[in-house]
Automatic annotation (TrEMBL):
Its EC number is 2.5.1.129. One of its GO terms (molecular function) is flavin prenyltransferase activity. Residues 16-178 form the Flavoprotein domain. Flavin prenyltransferase that catalyzes the synthesis of the prenylated FMN cofactor (prenyl-FMN) for 4-hydroxy-3-polyprenylbenzoic acid decarboxylase UbiD. The prenyltransferase is metal-independent and links a dimethylallyl moiety from dimethylallyl monophosphate (DMAP) to the flavin N5 and C6 atoms of FMN. This is Flavin prenyltransferase UbiX. The gene is ubiX. InterPro entries: Flavin_trans-like, Flavoprotein, UbiX-like. FMN binds at residues 23-25, 50, 101-104, 136. Belongs to the UbiX/PAD1 family. Transmembrane segments: none annotated.
Length: 201
């Protein structure tokens, strides 16, 4: 069931982004992306957090659903496949799955649509909107790689959370921030100056 957090009458605007969080390790990446988007843009953030993602967030960060809801305009249950974001008529600028588990990657690659996250991703692809997947797994087996090839051929962007070591010494928090900014930049959001490569002096 949809839960509107900020405004019960959300504007019908093209500046909407669907943010899905799955059970792969890396809950901090999702929360940091939501924080950055909340501070840097006026977009509507429509958030889906799977049950596995909530379990991971509790283990990694000691937080629950409320941490994501506080940064969302609307929250959805992953089992609610009839939610608004499951329809192509719900206009968005796209969708990001961060972190993206191999299970979710496989579901998207094969068009299963058996959860809201997989269905919303399928809708994003069929409507030719930007879909960004942030897979958090290593090493990768051949099945993973073939699924990444399949989603890329379908139009998605696969963006593993690779740190930019050229930025110099990175604290764990700065590393998470840099990756979140990089993902946000794929939707046209400018990163902080410190997170950009400006060339050799």
């Amino acid at each position: 069931m949809q839960r509107n957090v900020r405004d019960a009458n959300l504007a019908r605007s093209p500046s909407r982004l669907v943010v899905a969080v799955t059970g792969a390790s890396g809950s901090a990446l999702a929360l940091e992306l939501l924080r950055w988007l909340r501070e840097a843009t006026d977009w509507e953030l429509h958030v889906v957090v799977s049950a596995a993602a909530l379990r991971t967030a509790r283990l990694e960060l000691g937080v629950g659903r409320e941490a994501f809801a506080a940064l969302a305009d609307a929250m959805y249950a992953n089992k609610d496949i009839g939610a608004s974001i499951a329809s192509g008529s719900f206009a968005t600028l796209g969708m990001v799955v961060i972190p993206c588990s191999m299970n979710t990657l496989a579901a998207i690659a094969h068009g299963l649509g058996d959860t809201l996250i997989a269905r919303a991703a399928d809708v994003t692809l069929k409507e030719r909107r930007r879909l960004v997947l942030v897979p958090r797994e290593t090493p990768l087996n051949l099945i993973h790689l073939r699924n990444m090839t399949a989603v890329t051929e379908a139009g998605a962007v696969v963006a593993p959370p690779v740190p930019a070591f050229y930025l110099g010494e990175l604290t764990p928090q700065r590393l998470v921030q840099q990756i979140a900014m990089r993902v946000a930049s794929l939707f046209g959001v400018a990163p902080a100056p410190w997170a950009q490569w400006t060339g050799e002096e």
